[in-house]
Design a protein that fits this description.
Phosphorylase Kinase, domain 1, 20 helices, Transferase(Phosphotransferase), domain 1, flat, about 40% helix, alpha+beta, 3 domains
């Protein structure tokens, strides 16, 4: 007989809705057969067995052992694990209850719901993520709320962010650092061309999956460059947004006025971090670090990493130029510079894949139509001189040379492989300018043929009849006739009155 604690634990499991009763009873019988009834007196060990059986996740079992049975479902998603928390949200690993697809769900804390600034940023991230579809940007699947719980459903990336990788492994090799930043530049270039500026590029927002692919996430501070989109920094009087250690000098002054070159500076600071293991200005208070980004040159990478090539350091320093005009002007230029550097150091990149990524297509090209080949017109040949002859005297080949034809196949004919059937050839129509303009008349009667309407001779009238034809008489002649008629009437009246 199970003790009270185990009974409470099993009751919480059933009340949570994570496991059906039939499945739980069946697994309990197997567990008792393998470990004996003493396991019914040890809730943590029983929970561990349920985890190994795949009925619960480790995070779910811990919450159940703490006496919690609610909060495991959010709309149509089942929460499996807690991936992390930040100042603005918490992220969970979840699974669609019907499709069994694993996703990441970002949940806005309840205490932030009443803060209109945070809620607006949360919705802005959903809009920004939904507007982008690129292999180097985390995709957004859904957004919604359940009561006062607002959430964003995103692509789940199994891997680590670059900040965690450097913390565990130390500074990266120059080739690896350049590869990661090159991929991030491709994704950011696509976002910039779509009209979005990230404004919070940093190692913690660049995920690396198990295949080594970089994915950009956290578009909560992204700004649409179009004037029709309101600026959150203006709406809530927030002039500075971003992370201080990676903040562009102009962004520290006014975040809503920056352009894509602010992201280039932040990505340069990220490259500096990957090569040295720390941000460019890691010492001092927050105001001191912000001022260092404004005034001071970054400490030399060469002193800490003599193995880093000078040309890679030059790329990093140009990305981190204090004035925006001194940096690369587009993220595409950054991607090209890093691609050239990788090629020169024995790690070439696929140029075709690079172009596809910039256009938002998968490197594999799945689902994309092949590019159409351009049509090339064959050069016109001078027509060969042909002696005048009757149709009976001309051969079929001579006829084709004398008058270009269009070959068509009538329905129901056989293939021309046997050679028995022949293509019907239609004569090429002559341009209209070859026919005299005076021959074009409209004949509303029933013509013998369509061509008769345009080839029938124009009818003419004899000169006298044409002159007296009321439809052809000029206006001045009409005036003379009417005037003469009026005078005649007046004379007749005078004669009657007088005589």
């Amino acid at each position: 007989m199970a003790n009270t604690k185990v009974e409470n634990f099993l009751e919480l499991v059933l009340r949570s809705g994570l496991v059906e009763k039939a499945a739980l009873d069946a697994h309990l019988d197997r567990i008792i057969q393998q470990h004996g009834e003493q396991i019914l007196f040890d809730p943590p060990q029983l929970a561990d067995q349920l985890v190994q059986a795949g009925l619960l996740t480790r995070w779910q079992s811990q919450k159940l052992l703490e006496g919690r049975h609610r909060g495991f479902f959010l709309d149509k998603y089942k929460l499996l694990d807690h991936l992390g928390s930040g100042g603005m949200s918490s992220v969970y690993l979840a699974e669609h209850v019907l499709m069994n697809r694993r996703v990441a769900i970002k949940v806005l804390p309840k205490e932030r719901v009443n803060d209109s600034s945070y809620l607006a940023r949360f919705h802005r991230e959903a809009q920004a993520a939904a507007a982008l579809d690129h292999p180097h940007i985390v995709r957004a699947y859904d957004v919604g709320n359940e009561g006062n719980i607002h959430f964003l459903v995103m692509e789940y990336v199994e891997g680590q962010d670059l900040q965690a990788i450097v913390r565990e492994q130390g500074p990266l090799a120059p080739i690896s650092a350049a590869e990661y930043i090159h991929q991030a530049a491709l994704g950011l270039d696509y976002a910039h061309r779509a009209g979005l500026i990230h404004r919070d590029v940093k190692p913690g927002n660049l995920l690396v999956d198990k295949n080594g692919t970089v994915k950009i996430l956290d578009l909560g501070l992204a700004r649409f460059t179009g004037e029709e989109q309101a600026s959150l920094t203006l709406a809530y009087d927030e002039n500075v947004l971003g992370t201080a250690d990676y903040l562009a000098p102009e962004q520290a002054i006014n975040s809503h006025g920056v352009d894509a070159r602010a992201d280039i500076y932040s990505l340069g600071c990220t490259l500096y971090y990957l090569l040295t293991g720390h941000p460019p200005f890691a010492e001092g208070t927050l105001p001191q670090r912000l001022m260092a980004h404004q005034k001071q040159p970054p400490p030399s990478i060469k002193k800490e990493r003599p193995d880093v090539p000078d040309d890679l350091i030059r790329i990093c320093m140009r990305m981190m130029a204090k004035k925006p005009s001194g940096r690369y002007q587009t993220m595409a230029e950054v991607a090209d510079a890093l691609a050239d550097w990788l090629t020169a150091h024995g790690k070439p990149t696929d140029s075709s894949s690079q172009r596809a990524k910039r256009k938002g297509k998968s490197p594999s090209g799945s689902g994309a139509l092949p590019a159409a080949k351009p049509l090339r017109a064959k050069p016109l040949e001078e027509p060969e001189a042909v002696r005048p002859a009757s149709d009976s005297a001309l051969t079929e080949t001579a006829k084709e040379k004398q008058s270009p034809t269009i070959a068509v196949r009538l329905p129901g004919t056989q293939s021309s492989r046997s050679g028995s059937d022949k293509l019907k050839r239609l004569p090429q129509a002559k341009p209209l300018h070859e026919a005299p303009p005076e021959e074009l008349v409209f004949d509303w009667g029933p013509p013998a043929s369509v061509a008769a309407r345009f080839t029938a001779a124009k009818p003419t009238l004899p000169p006298a009849k044409a002159f007296l034809d009321p439809h052809r008489m000029p206006i001045w002649l009409w005036g003379v006739l009417i005037g003469g008629l009026i005078l005649s009437v007046i004379l007749v009246i005078l004669l009657i009155v007088l005589f």
